[in-house]
Amino acid sequence: MLSKKQARTFFLGGTVVTFLIFIGLTIYSFSKEQDQSNYENITEQVVRGKHLWEASNCMGCHTILGEGAYYAPELTKVIDRRGKGYIKAVLTTPNPWAPNGRKMVAYGFSDEEAEDLIAFFDWIDDIDLNGFDTVVSPIAKEKTNN
Amino acid sequence: MKYKSQKVAYWFFALSMLLLVLQLTYGFIMGFARIGLDGLHDFIPFNTARAVHTNLLVVWLLSGFMGAAYYIIPEEAQRELVNVKLAYVQLISLALVGVAAVIGYHFNWWEGRKFLEIPRQLDFLVVANVLLFLGLILATLFKGKRRTTTALVLSMGLLFAALLYIPGMLPFDSQVTDSFFRWWVVHLWVEGVWELIMGGILSFLLIKLTGVDREVIEKWLYVIVGLTFLSGVLGTGHHYYYIGVNKIWLIVGGIFSALEPLAFLAMALFAVNMYRKGEKRHPNKLALFWTLGAAIVSFLGAGLLGFAHTLPQTNLYTHGTLVTAMHGHLAFWGAYAMIVLAIISYSMPNMTGRKLYLSARGRAAFWLSNIGMIGMTVAFGVAGVAQVYLERKFKMEFMQVQNEISIHFVVLLLCASVLTFGIILYIVDFIKHGRPTDQALEIKQ
Ligand code: HEM
Ligand code: HEM
Ligand SMILES: [Fe+2]
Questions:
Q1: Each residue's pLDDT tens digit, A16-67
Q2: What is the spatial distance between Cα A6 and Cα B265, in angstroms, rounded to a whole number?
Q3: What total number of domains does chain A contain?
Q4: Which residues of A touch B237 (CB under 8 A)?
Q5: ipTM (interface pTM)
Q6: Which residues contact B273 (CB under 8 A, 6 or more apart)?
Q7: For position A102, which CATH number holds?
Q8: Phi first, then psi: what are they for A68, rounded to 5°?
Q9: Which residue, by CA, sits nearest to atom 14 of ligand 2?
Q10: Does B51 sit within 8 Å of A57, measured CB to CB?
Q11: Closest approach of chain A CAs to the CA of B185, in angstroms?
Q12: Which residues from A are below 8 Å from B46, CB to CB?
């Protein structure tokens, strides 16, 4: 039968080995050749957009890249689905926005802030999501079918 | 209770109970908002309620783990806590940081990163607080007469949990990188180091409640935490399928996360078998219920329901839907909420000298809260599966689908009321135990 010492060796050995592989894979997937997040296209405007995204806790209602809350729509590929004009209107209106009865926080962003957020969404939309984009946006699906 | 300083645990447990009630309150706010009753929207919009709900969950669980450590470590190390005053300082600072964070969320003082909403400035206070806690625990452990495996696994879990908080504090320009390292905290906590904490508490409780030889229990503890890390570390890949990183994670994450249920299965089998084997019949049946319950329900919520959406082929459709919320609720409940409630049920009679564990109220609390939580899981599950088909397969509009499935949130609220009633009974029991007292030192356990 397994002794306590063997059990401990199993624990320590397994942990060290899998952790090292994990670090290795992390380094690998962030290497330049493997990058599929179009990292080089992150502009200052995109970064400002990301800060606004965080400061407003948009993720507290919406998902992006499939992460966040399930109260409001997924925002990956939102520009595909709605167009920039619509998004800008939602972000800048000082009145509570309640399409189909569910309220969004009325942020009343300035024009410039809205543009920053749109730049952020624009950058998100060009990430290669291993096929998830085709699930959240019918338009993306058409593109891949062509 | 064998050492006076173990009484500190009581106050951490009391804080836990208080925050649990608040957590449930904010859960109701969200549940009502989902069926259109969003009268609080202007003061507590959904994103505020959600940040409060999930953060209070984490804080009450942490407070429960800390209480568990303050109770268990002296007994395992066979000495008093090195410094009781500092433990109270730690308690109060934990409460203050928690309250500051929660109040801040009502005034948009947050960082919208799911589960890590605490602003970076406050993060440093969290770190200071946890360092103080770890210092007290580790000093007690290493000055003690013995260093048991149970105590080591528990302390190691707490130490790693603190270390893993750090990747979540690093700033990144890319949402992809940000999300990647957010999972080092969230995933490696709940599917890694927190399982060590759970395993340590479970092993302590089984030793006390079943009377099975410590050597046997601790041997299996190593096997369980071994399985946890073996599958859980690379299993992190199940969060990397669709966030914009390399496809290699589809394979690595798929295989290793599919093995994660084994650790939870082992935990359930272990608890049930030790109970069967045990000669000792400890009179505190209630603690035994919660202990075995935690081992079994964690397998259902984390193991089975986790497996249900962990393969890349499934996750492609369920990623970021209410299916995730279904799993999140039962997993957190079974693994972590129930183990905290178990150690509280076990230690309260020992700290206060009042043996209330024969009351019908305690039993009712156990069954009502579990039935309520399972009902909620089913409600989230039905809503989630319907959402996946309508929105992701048939490409219906988001809000159209939400209106279709809103009826399941009525069911959710009913089940949440049953859960809440159970929790209230549990807290009534907690209060009836009264304060901890030194006279309890003389009572045989
Ligand atoms: C006690 C242990 C566990 C807890 C507390 C837990 C909790 C959670 C929570 C809260 C989330 C949502 C996280 C977020 O979106 O930020 C989540 C996601 C997930 N969990 Fe778990 N989990 C546990 C164990 C497991 C296990 C063992 C598996 C696999 C077998 C699993 C599979 C998943 C998957 C695939 C997701 C991602 C869902 C998505 O793509 O939206 N979980 N879990
Ligand atoms: C009164 C009872 C409760 C109600 C009504 C409730 C309701 C909710 C709702 C509506 C959400 C947000 C889902 C969304 O984004 O749309 C949520 C999130 C969450 N709740 Fe609860 N909840 C309750 C109790 C609990 C308990 C007891 C736990 C833990 C043991 C818990 C853990 C969580 C977690 C982990 C999340 C995040 C899930 C995710 O992102 O996937 N909740 N809850
Ligand atoms: Fe995970």
A1: 999 999 999 999 999 999 999 999 999 999 999 999 999 999 999 999 999 9
A2: 21
A3: 2
A4: 25
A5: 0.95
A6: none
A7: 1.10.760.10
A8: 140, -145
A9: A70
A10: yes
A11: 14
A12: 60-61, 69, 71-72
